[in-house]
Amino acid sequence: MTHIPASVVGYIQSMWMAEMILTYLHIDVQGRLIDWGGYPQHYGLTTLTKNKLIVEQVDFLDGFLDITHTEVLQYLNIGGNRCINVHIVPLDGSIYVLLFDVTDEHDKQQKMQQQVNELSILTYRQSQLLQELEATRKKLSEEKGQLEQAIKLKSDFIATLSHELRTPLTSIMGYTKLLDDAKQASDYETNYLDSVKKNANHLLSLIDNVLDQTKLEIGQIELHPNNCNVKQMLEDLKSLFLPIAQDKKLLFDIKIPNNLPAQLVIDELRFRQILINLITNGIKFTAKGFVELKITWQSNKLYFIVTDSGPGISSESQQKIFTAFHRESTANTLPGAGLGLAISYHLVELMGGQLSVESSPQFGSNFTGFISADSIQFTNTSNINHTNIKILLVDDSIDLRSLIELYLENEGYAVITASNGLEAVKLTLQTKPDIILMDMQMPVLDGYNAVQQLRAKKFNKPIIALSGSNIEHDRNYAFKVGCNEYMTKPVDPENLLNAISQIIQ
Amino acid sequence: MGILQKKICMIGDFSVGKTSLVAKFVRQTFSDKYLTTVGVKIDTKLLTLPNGNQMKFILWDIAGSESLTTTTASYLRGVAGFLLVVDGTRLPTWNSALNLREAVEKQLGNKPFVILLNKADLQDQWEMDEQVIEEKTKQGWKLLTTSAKSGMNVEEAFLELALLMT
């Protein structure tokens, strides 16, 4: 290796010292400054004094003068914007302190460290937020569970209440009908009976509306579409409403199109309910003029419009008219709970349609809507002879049992009765009935358990559930345990007899 | 009699507010902008004690770290006492402070220290467990809740350390 001349080495040293702004301090064993060189003023060391204690002149050296080996202090910011590396080198009893300017390197390092630290804080804050979100989600989930439980309790309560109200109501309505059919009552007795019937019907309608609204709120209403003779249904409605309209001296008509198919697949009960609500309202609010229902059928949709010449509805009220318990100020003196239109609106939606209102004060109202309604081929069914058919009627209410027994015997059925589920199971095994009418809420053994036991014992004849509960859950459970049909009390005699005929077929 | 000179170190995790506390104490300034310290910043401050004596603090504001590194350890040579700073809105910085205190004790023996629970102005994000703080206070540790932003307990913190060192 070629030897570099001393003069060149000296040149390189001076260049390097200038580049690094190297400064040195030479300190004796007592800690006094012996000498210095380089650029001390660059580091703010402007008043260095020989033979004076160094710690009184350079603060940061305090504590570093008793070292036995070289110590390096990196990145010291000693004021101003400069940053230094300090090398403290013990040599032959004295100490050399070397100062190097590393500001540029420090600044680069700082930039990198800044990014790392900021990212770390951000990550921490994010993880805290995620934890908070998770805690909130858990809390909401718990609250949702509690809310669902509360809704279920409410629903169960309404189901129980419904049963408790419907069962005695069934007796009241049934016996009232029997008294009415007897036609031996005097005029004032007939009036009393009419009043009892009217109020019982009103009470039943109120119970049904409250139940429907509750079920719609919690999404528990399920549709049961079946073959429906819509024309017949509309004729029935016409017969139902014509006398009521005539009592108020109103014109009433239902316009049925010629192209209406003989049978459409719809939930007849619910569609009927919608139309009854709309027509009832029309007649209730119209003082003079007319109420009309017009039906059209097109592209598997059944359109309906109920028009009246009543007082009309302000645009402000139209916004709220389909809200539950909303009542028009003009309706304060009229009966009703403000549920009919809300229920109709939701039912129409459930049936794949829409319901809307157009109205101007003084010019009457139009309630327009449609539902999905597929047409089907009409199949003719023949009546069958149901004499000598054995029916087991099970109900804990002696009044209801006697009433239904009377209907069935009038139709020629042979009737056996039982007052609870346990008795029903025993009698079924002994008498082998062709059909069972089973109350679902009974003491000793309820209808659900009785049906389960019968199906487990291979009894495979039809069972019709007669229940006071209008709740969808109860209906579904009845089918699940093995019932073939589900009817709610008060049971209409004709519907019951039709159901028996159909199920026997 | 000359002025007593003491080397004081500020230690703790990064971004707990060590530099801000020094800035407030020495220059009565505060900035919301975070600028990380690399290496160490050295400041001095003359403090008047309750007895009228003066003490000169050589303040070593050391770059934040959750544990004691070789570089950090070399800065501690000759330290008379230290302020252990915690970010009250980040619980992990409390654990870092406990680790650092233990490491300093191992290296330098018992040295006076005060723990500062900083950023008290951010109470809505406060994560410190009062029960843990109470426990440490019962053990004889000095703890102060501080805010470099509002100046809350800043002077008091340095004075407390000064008193521990006299």
Structural class of chain A: alpha/beta
Number of domains of chain A: 4
Please give the share of residues in helix of chain A: 40-55%
Query: What is the N-to-C succession of helices and strands of chain A?
Result: HEEEEEHHEHEEHEEHHEEEEHEHEHEHEH
Indicate the proportion of strand residues of chain A: 15-25%
Structural class based on helices, strands and sheet pairing of chain B: alpha/beta
Which outline of chain B best applies?
globular
Share in helix of chain B: 25-40%
Task: Evaluate the radius of gyration of chain A.
Answer: 47 Å
Distance between the termini of chain A: 118 Å
- How many domains of chain B, as an integer? 1
Q: Give the C-level CATH assignment of chain B.
A: Alpha Beta
CATH-derived architecture of chain B: 3-Layer(aba) Sandwich
- CATH homologous superfamily annotation of the largest domain in chain A: Histidine kinase-like ATPase, C-terminal domain
Say which CATH homologous superfamily of chain B is assigned: P-loop containing nucleotide triphosphate hydrolases
Oligomer: heterodimer
- Tally the beta strands of chain A: 18
Largest sheet of chain A: 5 strands, antiparallel
Give your account of this protein's structure.
The complex is a heterodimer of chains A (505) and B (166). Chain A has 505 residues and is α/β, with parallel strands linked by helices. Chain A is built from twelve helices and 18 strands. The radius of gyration of chain A is 47 Å and the shape is elongated. Chain A starts with 5 loop residues before the first helix and ends with a helix. Chain B has a single domain, classed as Rossmann fold (3-Layer(aba) Sandwich). In chain B, 33% of the residues lie in helices and 26% in strands. Chain B has helices at 18-27, 70-75, 92-108, 130-138, 154-165; strands at residues 4-12, 40-48, 54-62, 81-87, 113-118, 143-145. Chain B has a six-stranded mixed sheet, sandwiched between helices. Chain B is globular, with a radius of gyration of 15 Å. The chains are: A alpha/beta (505), B alpha/beta (166). The interface between A and B is medium-sized, with 27 and 26 residues. Strand 3 (71-77) of chain A pairs parallel with strand 2 (40-48) of chain B.
